[in-house]
Design goal:
This protein has 257 residues and is an alpha/beta fold. The chain has a single domain, classed as Rossmann fold (3-Layer(aba) Sandwich), CATH 3.40.50.10320. It has 7 helices and 7 strands; from the N terminus they run αβαβαβαβαββααβ. A 7-stranded mixed β-sheet has the order 3-2-1-4-5-7-6, sandwiched between helices. α3 runs antiparallel to α6 and α4 packs across α5. The longest helix is centred in the middle third of the chain and has 21 residues. The two termini are 32 Å apart.
Length: 257
């Protein structure tokens, strides 16, 4: 019994002391990878979430919250709730405007917003010293311009230098052919590029769904159910990642060499 307990403890806390930094655009983007963040947090990793925008333009008819400061306040509470449900650290909120200032003349607002993401990401890399960075790939998962811009800046800065402990970067993706043909919700990537595949437990999925339901201003319970079932096969739930450095080798952990 003592031997079994020791093995179980080593398994559960296998990632203790490791650091994951996930960087996304909006205060609900994390739910596309929520079960993975919950999984590694439960295994002892320190999981941090950086959110670039304040979500002020993300109105949904069912919520009856107008665009602007009232929606910003609601979405701030929602992302804090989601982080608590996932068991990760409180979110790092940059508070930039949705659309990253694209309405500004001559893209001045965009330049300023992207510079803010740049500086915040560098600070996080130097202070948190993550072992793993997760962000959007070129498609931004849904093709959303904010997703693409944030992912591009994070990837660019990640590649500007050799960081403290040679961290790994991954883009979360969905394999081509995995989405229902009548519901092409997400952009997809050929499965041969998705060489990091993380198996998830029912508990991981439950935490991810609990985090998703925090975002009341964005989703009804029915939509959460639909999206959750579209992303995760409950019989064999797997999260797919594409490494920044493609080796062709299949891996089953974000920390595996």
């Amino acid at each position: 019994m003592l031997l079994f307990a020791a093995i179980l403890t080593n398994c559960v806390y296998a990632q203790k002391g490791k650091v994951i930094l996930a960087v996304f655009a909006h205060p609900d983007d994390e739910e596309t990878v929520g079960p993975v963040l919950a999984k590694y947090a439960a295994e002892g990793a320190n999981v941090y979430l950086m959110v670039a925008t304040d979500g002020r333009y993300g109105t949904a008819e069912h919520a009856h919250i107008p665009a602007g400061d009232s929606l910003v306040a609601a979405r701030k509470l929602e992302i804090i709730c989601a982080a608590e449900q996932l068991g990760i650290h409180p979110p790092i909120l940059l508070g930039l405007p949705d659309q990253l200032g694209v309405e500004s003349k001559y893209y001045g607002g965009v330049w300023q917003s992207l510079d803010s993401v740049h500086k915040a990401f560098v600070t996080a890399m130097l202070t948190l010293k993550p072992d793993v960075v997760i962000t959007w790939g070129p498609s931004g998962w849904t093709g959303h311009p904010d997703h693409r811009l944030v992912g591009d800046v994070v990837t660019e800065i990640f590649m500007t230098r050799r960081w403290h402990n040679n961290p790994k970067m991954y883009f979360e993706e969905m394999p081509t052919g995995s989405m229902p043909k009548d519901k092409p919700i997400f952009e997809t990537v050929d499965s041969s590029f998705l060489t990091v595949r993380i198996s998830l437990s029912a508990q991981d999925l439950a935490k991810g769904k609990a985090g998703w339901t925090c975002h009341h201003s964005q989703y009804t319970p029915a939509v959460v159910d639909m999206l959750h079932s579209a992303l995760w096969n409950p019989a064999k739930p797997v999260a797919y990642f594409r490494p920044l450095v493609y080796t062709g080798k299949m891996k089953y952990s974000l920390f595996e060499e």
